[in-house]
Write a sequence for this structure.
């Protein structure tokens, strides 16, 4: 009899090798362990262990062989046992349960099991402690360190324990909350949560005093006390995360708010001017939709998952990516996800920031742990879902030490019409059944929506962390897209994300009028959840469907046949009421109008911020070639190839412009996929953000982001009339007038540049409080705010394969820069790495930019352009070096100085709206027919040698391409 | 010519795999594993059985293991039967891992799996293009092909083969594909030419008849010329190298 199955690889695994290397210790072995809640007899033990192991590559440990097997590897003396805390998603355990259930049909009634990672070492206790810190996160895992002898003893005496979720057996009785209390007491409810009978608090509701007073007023007019469920629901629905109160608030003299005036306003203006069918579905749905061709619509959505990723980087990031996948599944009648995008803004992984959420305790995770976790979270989420992840970027800055920014995006595709009906229109009808499909509900993610709207401080709840389960979602998604959607079996669909059922049903019910939900019907991961927890839980992998009663049986049957749960939990009604029952007791009854619009509107004031003057750095004297090497190897320019190769960008067979470009594999700033086999149209994707420019001038910062994201698509070959953009504002301290000033300025630039470029915003999201309040290692209190970051994602249609460009010139090509270069080194990579004297920040002149882009587009369609690359970080010098690295072909560069700027300004200024192109010599006359002489500079040619030569009047400076490539492909320290 | 393309539980390359067969004139259907278990007789309608790539069961308990166990419990005899007829089976990437876990290749002792696919030596997922050479050109899948440029995308693609078995695999000529370097010489384990550290640079194995092919690289992702990295700098025909594998399937039934 035993209650554990433990398996180890006979040969050294890749993971073991990397651990051994990292810790400089050859005696490290990892065991995959499974702990069972019941004892297994010998027969069951043999059967199950055979089912979950591999005879050829693995050994199953038994009481008899454990000592002998393990001692053949080393004389281990320390062990760390890592398992998930009770209630945390354990995907491996779920699979093992399914394998046992599928293959040993009747031999088990019910049992629980947990997966465990056991690491053995020969070394000191400090060594194993260090390993455990790199391999486990105490927020979601239990970590037990003990001597090897004890491990053997545990093995022999069946002392490995699985920890189950133990919730007190409690009977729910309807709880009414008295709000006729002092303002102080009222704000405590908002900040710390509803008080339980034992005086403990449930955790932050994120409701301010004004909102609580609005709730009090509502209930005094309807003459009763609110229930706990009602307050929880209002907190979710009114959260900044769901309602975007700051973007809709009156701000200074802008009564309609910056969203209506600047973001939506820009799109409305553009639609008014364009008069075509490009914009299909904007701002109202889970994602924004545009026309791809006459039969298909594509949609795009980008989300952030910052706070969860700070607490559990892997879980936060995987939940971020599979969550935004569901936004596509929930677009219209359900779009199929066809590409993922990512952008990470992180602290330097090589630095130790040593931050604490509480004085001398509750440390922040180390920066490299956060970076690695985020990168692998999106890898597992994207790869396991079979969605290519071609497009992304990473940026490092110390100011992300308190909160990393994790942007996850998805592109989806859906036929324009399904059975003759427009696919992007959906409407839950009165009488439709509310069907919850996918995963079950647990305590995970409780209060996610309310807490992501708050600053990260000691009261940030840890139960707010979820871990995504991409396979459960994949199974669900396959049924929806393949087996239900095209038969029009449901009337509406939406995703369960922030706020869980309370949010998804609440939103969908706007289509019919209202809803009645019976919460006791909701399938749970474990018993003991309170109704309010079921209602707001953010357990992942769930969608909500509105199904006409006649189709319900059929729909449930189809889900069940694919191993997916589908449960009737209520119905949509015509009456504009939100009603929730639990075992027949009514625990929520609100007017829909109050639920969605009853929150007090903010009235915000801004003030011009004091500009912090950056200290003047002296330029370190060094030669040009050395400067190029320094910039190439700096973290924000260095190649991100190691991410591109671990993210499957080839799945679905659609990759046409890949993340690594040219023989020399340069990490590109735009990629493209060709989603339909029999149409040569492609989708080009890019993105840009310039947090480094934000403090100097937020208006120009936003202009640069839009310009770069747009330019990258033009350069890749997209049709300028078919480009759309998405905005993701990640701000800090959005209750401070100077931060709000920066926000207003950035939003204003969004309007101006979007209208100038005629690129509609189709979707967006904001996250307003990316601040860390805590302590440093000396116990001094610190606040770290991210620099205001506006990520602009761009999506465009490329009409023909022949329009797609490459970044690699050919021998004999002439090199030209399109657009003029100004002295704009302020906040550039050069100024950070090398130093600067007097300079300005980059400012986008949209008129000049558009002339360049239109001419480029024309020349490219005529086949005049041979290769092209958008100039961004590091300026022309870096762009030209990347071209050489990508093509493995030498270039000459004539440092002809324009506008009286210096060589360094010419090479490293980050002036926007410029493109480096190469032409075949014989195309120059045709090129000159399109471009005015003042709009370009001939800078050199492609020689095909193995060096780049920079010539000025006096001398020639040479650098070998292979050396540049080496600098560019350096590992990022700490990763 | 009918092809059955398997789906379900996280398999995810079924559409592009089916498309490749269809372009060659096959009639095909994507069938969920649960439907096949419900009605295994439908296998009789098909000449080709394809297990595409993906992440069945999220790779938990070893890539391909859980799906292989499900097939073993429910469909094993039917699949063995299929493999003994004049029919073709292909497993690509996760499909390869499933075939290996089922023991359908190399299938020298026809019982338990004899070969394992373990984690890449680098310890990380590798999505990159590789060159392979055909070692067993008797297999109908690989006839008249010398080398191929194809992408791999996997975490567990390292073939682990006990020494004695490797000897008989070689003696029986069951190595399908091997990774090669830029000079068309065997990669000799050298990264990134051999992306996973596979023994003897093995990228694919066949059974003795050659009609069952388990390959880690993805031919369906190198089907058209525009799939090939930097296609704009090359003079190419309409199709990429992956096309040749599907063409061979067509020729087999011609």
């Amino acid at each position: 009899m035993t209650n554990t199955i433990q398996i180890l690889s006979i040969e050294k695994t890749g993971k073991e090798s990397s651990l051994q290397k990292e810790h400089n210790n050859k005696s490290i072995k990892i065991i995959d362990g499974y702990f069972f809640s019941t004892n297994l007899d010998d027969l069951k033990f043999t059967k199950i262990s055979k089912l979950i192991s591999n005879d050829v590559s693995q050994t199953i440990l038994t009481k008899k062989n454990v000592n002998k097997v393990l001692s053949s590897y080393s004389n281990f003396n320390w062990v760390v046992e890592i398992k998930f805390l009770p209630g945390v998603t354990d995907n491996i355990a779920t699979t093992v349960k399914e394998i046992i259930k599928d293959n040993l049909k009747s031999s088990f009634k019910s049992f629980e099991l947990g997966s465990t990672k056991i690491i053995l070492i020969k070394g000191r206790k400090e060594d194993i402690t260090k390993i455990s810190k790199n391999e486990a996160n105490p927020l979601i895992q239990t970590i037990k360190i003990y001597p090897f002898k004890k491990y053997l003893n545990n093995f022999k005496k069946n002392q490995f324990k699985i920890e189950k979720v133990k919730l007190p057996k409690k009977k729910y009785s309807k709880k009414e909350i008295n709000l006729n209390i002092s303002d102080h007491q009222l704000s405590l409810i908002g900040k710390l949560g509803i008080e339980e009978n034992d005086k403990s608090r449930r955790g932050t509701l994120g409701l301010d005093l004004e909102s609580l007073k609005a709730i009090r007023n509502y209930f005094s007019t309807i003459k009763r006390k609110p229930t706990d469920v009602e307050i929880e629901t209002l907190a979710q629905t009114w959260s900044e995360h769901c309602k975007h109160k700051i973007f809709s608030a009156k701000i200074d003299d802008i009564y309609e708010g910056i969203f209506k005036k600047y973001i939506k306003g820009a799109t409305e203006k553009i639609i008014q001017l364009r008069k075509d069918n490009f914009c299909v579905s904007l701002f109202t749905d889970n994602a924004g939709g545009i026309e791809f061709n006459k039969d298909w619509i594509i949609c795009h959505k980008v989300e952030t998952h910052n706070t969860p990723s700070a607490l559990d980087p892997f879980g936060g990031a995987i939940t971020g990516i599979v969550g935004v996948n569901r936004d596509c599944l929930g677009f219209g009648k359900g779009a199929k996800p066809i590409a993922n995008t990512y952008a990470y803004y992180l602290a330097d992984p090589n630095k130790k920031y040593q931050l604490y959420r509480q004085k001398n305790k509750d440390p922040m995770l180390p920066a490299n742990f956060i970076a690695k976790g985020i990168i692998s979270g999106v890898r597992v989420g994207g790869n396991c879902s079979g969605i290519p992840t071609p497009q992304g970027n990473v940026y490092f800055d110390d100011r992300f030490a308190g909160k990393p920014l994790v942007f996850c995006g998805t592109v989806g595709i859906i036929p324009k019409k399904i059975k003759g009906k427009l696919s992007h229109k959906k409407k839950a009808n009165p009488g439709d059944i509310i069907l919850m499909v996918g995963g079950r509900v647990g305590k995970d993610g409780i209060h996610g929506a309310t807490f992501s709207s708050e600053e990260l401080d000691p009261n940030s709840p840890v139960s707010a962390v979820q871990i995504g389960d991409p396979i459960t979602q994949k199974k669900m998604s396959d049924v929806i897209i393949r087996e239900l959607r095209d038969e029009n079996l449901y009337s509406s669909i939406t995703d369960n994300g922030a706020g869980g059922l309370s949010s998804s049903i609440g939103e969908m019910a706007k289509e019919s009028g209202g809803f009645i939900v019976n919460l006791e019907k909701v399938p749970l991961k474990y018993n003991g959840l309170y109704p309010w927890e079921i209602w707001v839980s953010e357990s992942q992998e769930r969608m909500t469907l509105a199904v006409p009663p006649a189709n319900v049986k059929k729909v449930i049957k189809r889900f069940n046949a694919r191993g997916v749960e589908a449960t009737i939990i209520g119905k949509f009604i015509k009456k504009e009421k939100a009603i929730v029952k639990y075992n027949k007791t009514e625990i929520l009854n609100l007017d829909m109008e109050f639920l969605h619009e009853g929150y007090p509107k903010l009235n915000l004031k801004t003030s011009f911020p004091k500009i912090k003057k950056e200290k003047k750095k002296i330029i370190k004297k060094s030669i040009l070639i050395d400067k190029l090497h320094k910039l190439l190897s700096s973290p924000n320019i260095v190649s991100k190839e190691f991410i591109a190769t671990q993210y499957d960008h080839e799945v679905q067979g659609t990759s046409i412009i890949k993340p690594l470009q040219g023989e020399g594999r340069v990490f590109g700033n735009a990629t493209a996929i060709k989603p339909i086999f029999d149409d040569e149209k492609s989708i080009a994707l890019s993105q840009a953000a310039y947090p480094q420019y934000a403090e100097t001038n937020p208006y120009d910062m936003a202009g640069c982001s839009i310009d770069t994201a747009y330019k990258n698509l033009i350069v890749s070959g997209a049709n300028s009339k078919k480009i759309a953009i998405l905005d993701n504002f990640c701000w800090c301290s959005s209750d401070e007038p100077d931060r709000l000033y920066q926000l207003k300025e950035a939003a204003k630039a969004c309007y101006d540049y979007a209208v100038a470029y005629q690129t509609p915003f189709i979707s967006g999201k904001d996250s307003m409080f990316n601040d860390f309040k805590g302590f440093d290692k000396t116990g001094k209190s610190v606040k770290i705010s991210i620099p205001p970051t506006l990520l602009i994602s761009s999506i465009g249609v490329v009409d023909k394969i022949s329009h797609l460009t490459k970044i690699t010139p050919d021998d004999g090509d002439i090199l030209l820069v399109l657009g003029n270069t100004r002295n704009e080194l302020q906040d550039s990579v050069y100024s950070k790495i090398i130093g600067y004297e007097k300079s300005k920040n980059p400012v986008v002149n949209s008129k000049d930019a558009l002339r360049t882009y239109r001419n480029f587009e024309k020349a490219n369609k005529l086949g005049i352009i041979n290769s092209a690359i958008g100039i961004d970080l590091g300026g022309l010098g870096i762009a030209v070096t990347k071209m050489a690295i990508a093509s493995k072909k030498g270039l000459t560069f004539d440092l002809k100085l324009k506008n009286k700027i210096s060589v360094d300004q010419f090479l490293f200024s980050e002036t926007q709206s410029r493109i480096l192109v190469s032409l075949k010599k014989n195309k120059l006359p045709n090129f000159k027919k399109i471009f005015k002489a003042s709009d370009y500079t001939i800078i050199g040619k492609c020689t095909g040698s193995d060096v780049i030569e920079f010539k000025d009047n006096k001398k020639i400076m040479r650098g070998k391409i292979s050396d540049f490539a080496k600098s560019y492909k350096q590992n990022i320290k700490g990763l | 010519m009918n092809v059955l393309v398997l789906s379900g539980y996280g398999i995810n390359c079924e559409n592009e795999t089916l498309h490749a067969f269809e372009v060659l004139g096959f009639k095909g259907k994507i069938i969920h594993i649960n439907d096949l278990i419900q009605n295994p007789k439908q296998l009789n309608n098909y000449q080709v059985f394809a297990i595409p790539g993906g992440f069945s069961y999220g790779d938990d308990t070893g890539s391909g293991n859980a799906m292989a166990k499900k097939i073993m419990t429910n469909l094993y005899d039917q699949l063995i039967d299929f493999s003994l007829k004049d029919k073709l089976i292909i497993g690509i990437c996760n499909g390869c891992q499933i075939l290996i876990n089922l023991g359908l290749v190399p299938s020298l002792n026809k019982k338990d799996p004899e070969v394992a696919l373990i984690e890449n030596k680098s310890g990380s997922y590798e999505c990159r293009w590789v060159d392979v050479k055909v070692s067993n050109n008797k297999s109908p899948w690989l006839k008249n092909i010398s080398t191929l440029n194809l992408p791999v995308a996997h975490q567990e693609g390292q073939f682990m083969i006990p020494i004695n078995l490797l000897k008989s695999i070689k003696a029986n000529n069951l190595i399908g594909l091997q990774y090669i370097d830029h000079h068309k010489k065997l990669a000799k384990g050298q990264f990134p030419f051999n992306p996973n550290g596979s023994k003897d640079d093995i990228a694919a194995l066949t059974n003795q008849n050659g009609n069952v092919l388990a390959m880690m690289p993805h031919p369906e992702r190198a089907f058209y010329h525009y799939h090939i990295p930097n296609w704009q700098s090359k003079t190419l025909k309409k199709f990429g190298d992956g096309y040749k594998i599907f063409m061979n399937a067509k020729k087999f039934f011609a």
